[in-house]
Amino acid sequence: MTNTSESDGDAPRVPVVCPDCDTTSRVPLSDVADAVERHNDQLHDGDDVAEVDPDVADRIADLVATELGLLEDGD
């Protein structure tokens, strides 16, 4: 898994996990998609093994749904 560089400053970092490699890395939010794709391409023949920590992904999805009003009743 790719580690972050000092040039990333104070960018929010997202935990990315790979159960097959037994690794966890924190990647700047803006680099998550590329880092996951690169890891999976290089180490897992492109299979979707590494991913954003599922607990974090679920929490982000809940926050976005709330912000967009998708969880409100239609009454």
Automatic annotation (TrEMBL):
Stretches assigned to the DUF8149 domain? 7-73
Superkingdom of the organism of origin: Archaea
Q: Which Pfam families match?
A: DUF8149
Matching InterPro entries, A to Z? DUF8149 (IPR058462)
Name assigned to this protein: DUF8149 domain-containing protein
Organism of this sequence: Natrinema altunense (strain JCM 12890 / CGMCC 1.3731 / AJ2)
